[in-house]
């Protein structure tokens, strides 16, 4: 495996271009459009997104829900402790992974104000495992006592919690347990979905529970193993059928965000639906299997970086990402796969020069 110099993906961003609150309406955010075929860049507004998308294409979005995963609880000694529940990593309901901001020991209890408590039952490096003792579910307690888990660069945002919970959530969030938003989808409104429908662009959902790993710095081991942090994914039957139909009819597939891209590319790499694409016998078998497709549930730890041959995604809608992150490398891999004349760093420099806002509540980039 080739270890890429992360310094090549560094850039300097003026503090003023980190938008701390989402614009209203959501679709009034700016849109940076890069056409890789003509090497042209267009500046527009997100509400006009449909203008730049091929008619009768398939758009895939992540309908995950961001949970208010940050808690302030009380130790048995009376001291306060911050607990960040890693709900997206929970595999066993009786073994809840979490991060804490101070020293605790196995066997200690961490109390909610209603008397419910966590008992510390294990530890793996910085992650502690908690067992919940309560008449209420974890989701109910988070809803009652939790705070929205904003990324560090948004700390100090002036929005009140009630407003923040709605704004750091997509309008179509339906299920899942994320601790960070699929930010490429935060700009969508009913108006945008209506315009997509008028252009016969079909929308389907997947669910990927976004974890803190999305913000984690890259290490050499990621390149050596070809793997990133693990995230849980679910692709419903109707989405698989739509994907099968799109591949069979050469219908363009638009991924909304890096989470969707990871899900689709991970699925195609593991799935019997699409492997051995050049083998005609396998193709016939694949078509038969697509006709009997079922829901796909599993994990993804796929690390997409240059060079990478994308098998599912034809167009990518994304936000502007933190420097030297796996998300930047994924987008650059997509640009290279489309034989773009410009790389991600050059495009970011152009966006900065033209005062585009970056990160979670920032503006949007479309690559076609």
Verbal overview:
The mean pLDDT is 90. The protein has two domains: 6-66 and 167-367, QueA-like, CATH 3.40.1780; 70-145, Thrombin, subunit H, CATH 2.40.10.240. It is 24% helix and 26% strand. The longest helix has 13 residues, at 237-249. The protein is an alpha/beta fold and 368 residues long. The strands form three sheets. A nine-stranded mixed sheet has the order 2-1-17-16-14-3-12-13-15. It has a six-stranded antiparallel beta barrel with strand order 5-6-7-10-9-8. It has helices spanning 138-145, 161-167, 190-198, 220-225, 237-249, 258-270, 280-291, 326-337, 344-353; strands at 30-35, 40-45, 58-62, 64-66, 70-75, 80-85, 96-100, 109-111, 117-124, 127-133, 175-178, 202-208, 227-235, 253-256, 296-302, 315-319, 364-367.
Explain briefly what this protein structure is.
This protein is of the alpha/beta class. It is 24% helix and 26% strand. It is built from 9 helices and 17 strands.
> Assembly type of the shown chains?
single chain
Distance between the termini: 28 Å
Mean pLDDT: 90
CATH architecture of the largest domain: 3-Layer(aba) Sandwich
Give the helices and strands as they follow along the chain.
Answer: EEEEEEEEEEHHEHEHEHEHHEEHHE
How many DSSP H or I helices? Answer: 9
Lateral strand order in the biggest sheet:
2-1-17-16-14-3-12-13-15
- Percent of residues in helices comes to 10-25%
Domains (count): 2
